[in-house]
Design brief:
This protein has about 450 residues and is an alpha+beta fold. The protein has 14 helices and 23 strands. The chain folds into two domains: about 240 residues, BirA Bifunctional Protein, domain 2, CATH 3.30.930.10; about 90 residues, 3-Layer(aba) Sandwich (Rossmann fold), CATH 3.40.50. It is about 30% helix and about 30% strand. Its EC number is 6.1.1.14.
């Protein structure tokens, strides 16, 4: 067996992502655009499935969480109230020798440049705002400036009162949102881990002051359990608590769920106790009353907020890294496989005729159309059957169905399982239900 941790490198994962249609460099035919990526046929399916799994987990499975989709561009006063105009910036330095730019708080300014090694060539640190500016309207002046949102949370806060008035929710309750955010990151690296354009999956949970610590603990446990549910190996996850120097200006307490990427432990999701900072600031800046009236006690208060904020694109990278394995399956034969949870896999079932002749192709296509009603399917009739299996292994397809001459005799097919490579004979009439049963009872088997 290959050592999975040793062999799992970003180079291999990036290569597979391009080769199998998961992720492409944006504008590649023009030389590419730094920190921008396009999601190919496999990538967009994987991303959408992660999003749907998260959305179901956060809304459908809770009776006190509702959804929202706020606009990307918002009134500029929103970002003044949130503190982004004042606080959302990084100290940057340039190396005069090699012209590379770095965050001043990420390097030793007294040592040599991390790229060229030359000492004493850093510029003085300069503050660099991370928000993208644009203009709304025909005249471009200071009055037309708006920002592309650097986070999705503020859209939830400014709509909190609308949700309370229209959805009949009562505290404690949550508002969930998935959407694009934009940060003018100068230092981007590690493939899609840190980019200028990304997607967030956030849920803001509104609670009564005094109940915040209880709910904070609840959501820490819930969010960690979610990753186990989607098949991530728990030894690759841990909590990191923010120390006093790390806490954001709005936070009473904060933990990150970190994942062990090939390039080290990095933040995957933040869980923050934001107290009433956000609603009090928006109430102050908008001059609107954002207090909540408890109809039973007739008490008014500004809710505290417990936030869970995960990166969708970063989650996709985690799923790719965690699923990637190489295993020895024969002398000199190494199989590359993506062990996705079946509910996340871009394709659920591959369907193959053993050969193209004697009506097997037509019969296989008929079965594929039946399965398409319930699953994402892929039909392939070219190449040796073993090669077709390997192609599906590389994109993480959990099940393959082969139609052969016996199918014509007794209406049975061969069902192959990706993780174990086991093959069983099953009746065509029972095929769909059996696949569904295996998805529901799925437990990851690693090499």
């Amino acid at each position: 067996m290959a050592d999975n941790n040793q062999d799992k490198t970003m180079d291999k994962i990036v290569s597979l992502a391009k080769r199998r249609g998961f992720i492409f460099q944006s504008s590649e035919i023009y030389g590419g655009l730094s920190s921008a990526w396009d999601y190919g046929p496999m990538g967009v399916e994987l991303k959408n499935r992660i999003q749907r799994f998260w959305w179901r987990e956060m809304t459908q499975l809770h009776d006190n969480i509702v959804g929202l989709d706020a606009a990307i561009m918002m009134h500029p006063r929103v970002w003044e109230a949130s503190g982004h105009v004042e606080n959302f910036h990084d100290p940057m330095v340039d190396c005069k020798n090699c012209k590379n730019r770095f965050r001043a708080d990420h390097i030793d300014l007294d040592a040599g440049c991390p790229v060229c090694g030359v000492s004493g060539q850093f510029t003085e640190p300069r503050e660099f705002n991370l928000m993208f500016k644009t203009n709304m309207g025909p005249i471009h002046d200071e009055n037309s400036v708006v920002y592309l949102r650097p986070e999705t949370a503020q859209g939830i806060y400014v709509n909190y009162k609308n949700v309370v008035q229209t959805s009949r929710v009562k505290i404690p309750f949550g508002i969930a949102q998935v959407g694009k955010a934009f940060r003018n990151e100068i230092v981007t690296k590690n493939f899609i881990f840190r980019t200028c354009e990304f997607e967030q999956m956030e849920m803001q949970f509104f609670v009564k002051p005094g109940d915040d610590e209880t709910w904070f603990e609840y959501w820490m446990k819930k969010r960690m359990a979610y990753y186990e549910k989607i098949g991530i190996r728990m030894e690759n996850l841990h909590f990191h608590q923010h120390g006093p120097d790390e806490l954001a200006h709005y936070a009473k307490d904060a933990y990150d769920i970190e994942y062990k990427f090939p390039f080290g432990w990095k933040e995957l999701e933040g869980i923050h106790n934001r107290t009433d900072f956000d609603l009090s600031r928006h109430s102050e800046y908008s001059k609107k009353d954002l207090t909540y009236l408890d109809e039973e006690t007739r008490e008014r208060f500004l809710p505290y907020i417990v936030e869970t904020s995960a990166g969708l694109t970063r989650s996709l990278l985690m799923v790719l890294c965690d699923a990637y394995e190489e295993e020895q399956v024969g002398e000199g034969d190494v199989r590359t496989v993506l062990r996705f949870h079946p509910e996340l896999a871009p394709i659920t079932v591959g369907v193959f005729p053993l050969v193209k002749k004697d009506g097997l192709a037509e019969l296989a296509k008929e079965i594929e159309m039946e399965l398409r009603e319930d699953y994402a399917t892929f039909y392939d009739q070219s190449g040796a059957i073993g090669r077709r299996y390997r192609r599906q292994d590389e994109i993480g397809t959990p099940f393959c169905v082969t139609i052969d001459y016996q199918t014509k005799d007794d209406n049975t097919v061969t069902l192959r399982f990706r993780d174990s490579m086991e093959q069983i004979r099953v009746s065509r009439s029972e095929l769909s239900a059996l696949i569904r049963s295996h998805i529901k009872s799925y437990k990851r088997v690693s090499s």
